[in-house]
Every structure is written in C-alpha cells, then in structure tokens.
C-alpha cells in the first residue's frame, strides 16, 4: 500500500547527532554580510510568499552556483524566526546536504522514502534544530528522475507542505539534469541561485523559460558573489 503518512513512531533517530559546518554562515558568522542577506531574503519570503499562502519553494541553479548553500542557510534562518521548516535534499544523484548539516551516521532519506512504499515518510525525517526538520537525499540513485517523477514523490511533497509551515527543496543543477525542473513543478514555486564568475546569464535565462513553461512561478534570483 502506498502510505506516505508522516507518523514518526519507530523512526531510527536514536543516537544520531548532527553538526553544522562553517558553511552554515547564519550560525558560524552570524554578523556577516552573507548572514544578513540571508535574513533579508527570509523576510522577503515571509512577507511576499508565505503570507500569500504559499508553503513551498524549490531552490534551483545551474552547476556550482550554490543552491544547497542558500537552501540550508535560508531554512535555518526561517526556523530561527519560528517558522516550522522542512528542508529536503532532492539532489539524489549527488547529495550535498550532508556536507552542511552532518549526521553522525548514515540515515535513510528521500530515495528510501520513495522506494519503500510500506514505510511512513516520517521514518526519514529528522528534527535537528528547533523548528527545523531535514529529509536527506538518501543513498545516491542513478534512477533519480524516475523516482522524482513518481506519484509517490508528489504525494510526499504534498503531505510535507501540509505538515510544515514551509518546505524548501534543494535541487540538482538544472543545466545537467531535468530533476530540478521536476521538483519545481511539484512545489509550483522556484528561486534561482546564480554565482559571480560561474553562472552564465544565458543559462539562467534558459532555466527561467523552462520553469515558466512547466507552469512554475519564479519568485526571483539570488546572486552569490563568492
């Protein structure tokens, strides 16, 4: 039976600890310009996105632009402001979230939750900070697009967006894979990350047009200078 229920009874959370890397700048460098810009982005999303009833956002990028960096720091900033936030790593091909919020041992993630139809999604959810819950990507899978394209994935996202105040999904580079477009099409809204001297303007323009063609609302672009 396809049961993406969010019940957490029996979830293997016991004994797992989590540590933050220095790339989590809202904690490691709270007075930095990067942390301040993250909080400003949070305020914009709360005022112009969440207050309109929108409960999810895909963070999209072209290669090496820093989508996971933005997603992690934004998620923690939201959680620190009292928003019950879920952060999902949907980059099943090359997971990155573990490099920012590091679990003390291997734990199940999104790929496992999609494939194990008889296991509630709560089995893979881990609350790591007040108001912040994570869903790691799980073990890398070459069948990423098939998993993200499944009805099971769409049901999981729908359930999570109803359970949490806000759901953020970090995605794989959209100029290499179609995965990010699929994720954004499920969440309906996307934020694009660009990086100085790395991201090509033409790639961003192509990504915007692709997302619009998928009926995704692009709420803006974050420009990283480092």
Description:
The chain has a seven-stranded mixed sheet with strand order 5-6-3-7-2-8-9, sandwiched between helices. Strands 1-4 form a two-stranded antiparallel sheet. 41% of the residues are buried. With 226 residues, the protein is α/β, with parallel strands linked by helices. It contains eight helices and nine strands. The protein has a single domain, classed as Rossmann fold. Helix 2 crosses helix 3.
Can I get a quick summary?
The chain has 226 residues and is of the alpha/beta class. The chain contains eight helices and nine strands. Helix 8 links the parallel strand 8 and strand 9.
Report the helical percentage.
25-40%
CATH hierarchy, class: Alpha Beta
- SSE pattern: EHHEHEEHEEHHEHEHE
CATH architectural group: 3-Layer(aba) Sandwich
N-C termini distance? 47 Å
Query: Which strands sit side by side, in order, in the main sheet?
Result: 5-6-3-7-2-8-9
Whole-number mean pLDDT: 91
Classification by helices and strands? alpha/beta
Amount of beta strand: 15-25%
**How many helices?**
8
User: What is the fourth-level CATH superfamily?
Assistant: P-loop containing nucleotide triphosphate hydrolases
Uncertain parts: 6-12
Major sheet characteristics: 7 strands, mixed
Query: CATH topology, anyone?
Result: Rossmann fold
Return Rg in Å: 16 Å
Number of strands: 9
């Amino acid at each position: 039976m396809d049961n993406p229920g969010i019940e957490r009874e029996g979830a293997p959370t016991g004994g797992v600890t989590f540590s933050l890397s220095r790339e989590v700048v809202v904690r490691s460098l709270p007075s930095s310009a990067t942390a301040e810009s993250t909080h400003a982005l949070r305020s914009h999303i709360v005022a112009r996105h969440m207050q309109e009833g929108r409960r999810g956002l895909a963070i999209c990028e072209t290669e090496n632009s820093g989508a996971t960096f933005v997603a992690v720091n934004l998620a923690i900033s939201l959680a620190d402001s009292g928003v019950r936030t879920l952060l999902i790593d949907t980059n099943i091909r090359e997971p990155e979230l573990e490099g920012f919020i590091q679990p003390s041992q291997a734990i199940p993630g999104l790929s496992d939750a999609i494939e194990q139809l008889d296991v509630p999604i709560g089995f893979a959810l881990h609350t790591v900070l007040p108001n912040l819950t994570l869903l790691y990507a799980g073990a890398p899978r070459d069948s990423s697009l098939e998993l993200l394209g499944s009805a099971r994935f769409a049901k999981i996202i729908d359930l999570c967006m109803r359970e949490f105040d806000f759901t953020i999904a970090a995605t794989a580079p959209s100029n290499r894979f179609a995965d990010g477009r699929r994720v954004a099409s499920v969440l309906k809204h996307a934020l694009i990350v660009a990086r100085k001297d790395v991201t090509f303007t033409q790639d961003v323009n192509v990504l915007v047009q692709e997302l619009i063609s998928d009926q995704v609302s692009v709420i803006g672009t974050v420009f990283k200078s480092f």
